[in-house]
Amino acid sequence: METGSHAANADFFSSWSGGKDSCLALYRAVRAGGRARRLLTMMAEDGSKSRFHGIPAAIFEAQSRSLGIPAEFIAEPWEKYEEAFTAAMKRFRQGGITAGVFGDIDIEEHRAWVRKVCAAAGVTPIHPLWKEGRRGLLEEFIGLGFKAVIIAVQDDKLDRKFLGKAIDRDTLAGFEKAGVDPSGEMGEYHTLVTDGPIFSAPVGYRAKGAAGHEGYSFLEIEPA
Fold first, then answer.
1. Cα maximum dimension of the chain
2. Residue 1: per-residue pLDDT
3. Is 87 exposed, middle or buried (0-12, 13-18, 19+ CB in 10 A)?
């Protein structure tokens, strides 16, 4: 199992979505003695927002400043996603970054892809959250004092009223009432982390409304 303990004394990059799982994985890897050198985020082709969660580059830059970890963005067409991700890891490896930290919990297909591309780049994959209880991880995230808000929901799973809600125990109860897995591991919702024990200052943002795209509703945000 690729756990956070394998991060000890390693220079690593974080596969960074800006959300709760990548953040908790980063936190655990740092606590295990690893040294975070980069936040790697895949962007939409025009580079303005993240490919999967629609978070503006300026928000990631604010997270980067607060975490004290340089951000690196890759903006390529979807058909070049794997090639671009692998090329970035090869560049990191040449610069002495020997490991990558990923926030996957238990979807084997995702971990298999990570292991494949990491092998091609000569990078060690680390999955600090792998095979742990989904609810327990969310409880840990909340208990550690991290702050996050919901910035996307899958329309056939969650109502738009969840957009902008904080990740806390009240929202957890709302997920359960809606019959949704609390971790959102299957893509039911996505989050933006704004503060926590590894942040030097809160990450501010302003909500500008909501927009729909390919079965998801997104909270449109900009830096505060």
1. 49
2. 42
3. middle
Structural domains for the chain? 4-126 (3.40.50.620), 144-223 (3.90.1490.10)
Count CA atoms within 13 Å of residue 129 on its CB side.
Answer: 28
Residues 6+ positions from 101 with CB-CB distance below 8 Å:
4, 7, 12, 13, 14, 15, 25, 26, 29, 34, 36, 126, 127, 128
C-alpha to C-alpha distance for 29 and 14, rounded to whole angstroms: 9
Specify the pLDDT at position 194: 98
Q: What is the block-wise mean pLDDT of the chain (224 residues), using blocks of 10 residues?
A: 64 97 97 96 86 88 98 91 95 97 94 96 96 93 97 94 95 91 88 98 94 89 90
Look at residue 209 in the predicted model and tell me its pLDDT: 87
Cβ-contact 125, 114 below 8 angstroms:
yes
The answer to whether the CB of 126 falls within 8 A of the CB of 99 is: yes
Q: Determine the pLDDT at residue 190.
A: 94
In three-state secondary structure terms, 56 is strand
One-character DSSP codes across 132-200:
--HHHHHHHHHHTT-EEEEEEEETTTS-GGGTT-BSSHHHHHHHHHTT--TT-TTSSEEEEEEE-TT-S
- The tokens for 86 are 């692998």
